[in-house]
Amino acid sequence: MRRDSKIFPYVVIIKQKGRRRIEILGIISSLIFILILLQRIYEYPSARIINLLVCVSVSGMLVYNILQFRKGKKISLRPLHIVAFLALLLIPPINWFLLFFIIMALLEKMALTPEEIGFSDEEIVFSGMMKKTIRWNELNNVILKDGIISIDFNNNKLIQKETDDGDDEDEDASEEEFNLYCAERLKIANYGLRITD
Q: Of 119, 93, 103, 116, whose CA–CA distance to 163 is shortest?
């Protein structure tokens, strides 16, 4: 959990599930693009040099990303998909497979953007394509313990998600500090009381 005082006093980043599968799909689609380039090099001698240059640069980008993937690091093949889109659009002949690569770039961006939950004095906001807002008075309890955020609603609905600690340790707040903040917000919202030390 990190502090982001400009918009939300606290922002909890949710751990992404299935990131590796999306990265593997990106690698496979990049290999497909290289095969398309190789076919174009063979079949269209007039654009052979430009296709060869694109193929070499894309292959280098892909090899780098595969090495990072094997080390367990997060990768993004969005730039490679954008290059694929532009190459298939700008280098004759135009190949309608370019739509696949622009869709892959957009889907990867949406799928690999981590979900965040922002906590402000008035509300809790879940990020995503369709932002969801929850008022504090709709909740019984909010607690962060051992990397699990639990949000308990008045209607007995419960949301539990695993958090991602991330790399920015300097901005992290303690679970105790976050839980005290949430307890105070709940008391103010439900009873109009403020916790005093």
A: 116
- What the chain holds in terms of domains, given with CATH numbers, is 2-16+115-191 (2.30.29), 19-112 (no CATH)
Rounded CA gap, 103 and 85, in Å? 9
Q: What one-letter code names the amino acid at 45?
A: P
The angle formed by the CA atoms of residues 16, 18 and 20, to the nearest 5 degrees, is 105
Residue 24: count of CB within 10 angstroms of its CB: 11
pLDDT tens for 21-73 read 889 999 999 999 999 999 988 888 888 899 899 999 999 999 999 999 999 89
Sign of the C-alpha dihedral computed for residues 5, 6, 10 and 14 taken in this order = negative
Beta bridge mates, 141? 152
- Per-residue pLDDT of 133-157, as tens digits, reads 999 999 999 999 988 999 999 898 9
Q: How do strand 8-13 and strand 116-119 relate by DSSP bridges? A: antiparallel
